[in-house]
Structures are given as structure tokens and as C-alpha cells.
Write a structure and sequence with these properties.
This protein has 184 residues and is mainly beta. The protein folds into two domains: 82 residues, Elongation Factor Tu (Ef-tu), domain 3 (Beta Barrel), CATH 2.40.30.60; 78 residues, SH3 type barrels (Roll). It has three helices and 13 strands, in the order E-E-E-E-E-E-H-E-H-E-E-E-E-E-E-H. The longest helix has 10 residues. The radius of gyration is 21 Å and the shape is elongated.
């Protein structure tokens, strides 16, 4: 894993008012953390954005953007995704990981058998789940806890998984079964 890859941390969601302010939505765990990261760039890294944060709501920040003086210019930036370099993120504690570091890792079982790759991290409120795409068949979800994922080795690019008995088979059967039509 390299520290020079870009990490999505927010998006300009539109204009606010007539003087060029923008609405900025943060994707960081603690939304205010986006204020600390510099430089914020577009996806290509061609344009750097400097914000002066003015206020916040539950869903976004209101900010002035250097060089933007009117609503039309602010609106032209709608949906601009904001990135930082991975190296700009703080170090993590033991057994703490950035989601972006987990995506792409190989998933192996305790016998080093390839079980697929992590393709996404989901959290619907009950704790994080890893979505793993096996070499064959449909993807499956696995709780991201110490029991089901006893080892994470970011430098080696892999995780060790220990799914409960029948977990993968059940997940595969549910993703490959055709829907049944109700009979009257």
C-alpha cells in the first residue's frame, strides 16, 4: 500500500448564497477533521482548494473558497470531489484501520487459502462488515471483528478470515438463488 494514493474526504455539494460560498459535505469520521487536511484537491490533483469555513449544519459546512466570488462560479463546482493524499492522514492505533486501506486486500483463511478480495466496507449502524468477492460466485459480507477477521496485515496486503461454519456457503446460496414467483 502506498501513501501517495488519493483518499476521498468530501464533496462540494453546491452553492450557498450569492457571494460564492459553497456547501461542503465531509466524509471523514469526525466531519470537522476535513478542516485540518491540506491540500484538498480534485480527483486528478490538478486543482487545489483552500476553504475558509464559516458555519456548519448537521449535514454540511458553509465555506468561502479562495478565488470564487459569485454564485455561478460556486455552482460550477457542484459535485466536485475533494481528495487528500493517504500520507496526510494521522497514524492509526493498533487494530484501527482506514476503510480505504482495507479495500483491495486479499482475504485468506487460516490455511492461507485464497477466499477473495475485500471490495467494500459497509456500516449500517451495527458495526462494520467487509464485502468480499471470492474468486468464483457472488460476494459475501463478513463482520469486521476480531473473531471473524483475526488478522489484518496492511503491508502484506491481506487479511485472515475465520467465518462461522457454513457462512460463505449460505451467503453464496442466497446471492445465486433466483427469486421465486408467488403462486396464487
Amino acid at each position: 500500500m502506498t501513501n501517495d494514493r488519493k483518499i476521498l474526504v468530501g464533496v462540494i455539494s453546491g452553492a450557498h448564497g450569492v457571494q460564492g460560498d459553497v456547501r461542503l459535505r465531509s466524509f471523514t469520521d469526525v466531519p470537522e477533521a476535513i478542516k485540518k487536511y491540506k491540500p484538498l484537491t480534485d480527483e486528478a490533483g490538478n486543482r487545489e482548494f483552500k476553504f475558509k469555513f464559516k458555519s456548519a449544519t448537521n449535514n454540511y459546512f458553509i465555506a468561502a473558497l479562495e478565488g470564487i466570488k459569485d454564485r455561478d462560479a460556486a455552482e460550477a463546482l457542484r459535485n466536485t470531489k475533494l481528495y487528500i493524499l493517504r500520507s496526510a492522514l494521522p497514524k492509526t492505533a493498533k487494530r484501527e484501520f482506514y476503510e480505504s486501506d482495507l479495500v483491495g486486500l486479499a482475504a485468506v483463511d487460516g490455511k492461507d487459502k485464497n477466499c477473495g478480495n475485500v471490495i467494500a466496507v459497509h456500516n449500517y449502524g451495527g458495526g462494520p462488515f467487509l464485502e468480499i468477492q471470492p474468486p468464483e460466485g457472488g460476494a459475501f459480507m463478513l463482520p469486521f471483528d476480531k473473531k471473524c477477521v483475526p488478522a489484518v496485515d496492511i503491508p502484506e496486503g491481506r487479511i485472515v478470515i475465520n467465518p462461522p461454519d457454513g457462512w460463505i456457503e449460505t451467503a453464496r446460496s442466497q446471492t445465486t438463488k433466483p427469486a421465486r414467483e408467488e403462486k396464487e
